[in-house]
Sequence to fold (302 residues):
Amino acid sequence: MKLLVINNLASGYRDGAIYDYLRMIATDGDEICVRCTDGTTQISTLLSGAAGFDVVVAAGGDGTVAAVSYELANTGIPILPFPAGTGNLLATNLKSPLEPHALAAMTHSLRTLDFDLGEITAGGKTFGFSIMAGAGYDAAIMHDAKPAKKTLGAIAYFQAAIANAMTQKSKIRLVIDGKTVESEGLGVLLVNFSRIQFDIPITHDANARDGRFEVVILKAENAFGLIPALVAGILDRDGVHPDRTDSLEIYHGREVEAFADPPFQIQFDGELPDITTPFRARVLDGAACFVVSESTFNDLTG
Fold:
């Protein structure tokens, strides 16, 4: 087996799990190429010649995996999202193991499925995302959680959510597949995979293989008004509690334009490009080929 490992040195806790994985996966005749970045070297540079490998291992947080996936979109090259960040939400959504030995075994099995990606354009720049993108309250949480992520982990997001309880409210205009929606709220989310920290599903029907986003307007006067939706998400962990209350206004679409007055800061998979609305986004159907566990493969194909 030939593996190309993209190792983001700046992600997560730098606990060395990727090196444990490499020791466990290596067998006679294997070729393993490790290319590292601390954010200085562009991931696109590190992916040179990726088509010559059996698997690309994206070791880092969700932003790292999204960057690798977007660069390899529609190539059919298998990608193993290696959870080396603080949140690792893609691993949560894919129900992938976190332990290096199990990830090594999963790689050797090489079960793959295609998933949608998102593409967002704002401020003259274009980015890819795998989980969700948004503007407003979620971006404020990502911004304020960043300094504490390495020490507090997922708790940093909860702390930031409380700190931004009285966050900005704006007039929102969305154009979803040509249809205009006007509302007010604390932010907008484009959901591809729906599960966030603590395995809570933001929405009930999100499907990262159906060619559309769930487009969510956060409807509340302040963040405390979103608590009913949070409680509904906690109750929906087993997938049998679809209601999200009036706290969320949910639509579906493939192409979305978003405008806010006053403007919202945007984020995608936890990355903060220091750009505000408006933005445009679209679904890239089945653009990412992810290595998945046997249980996930059977759940999604059976």
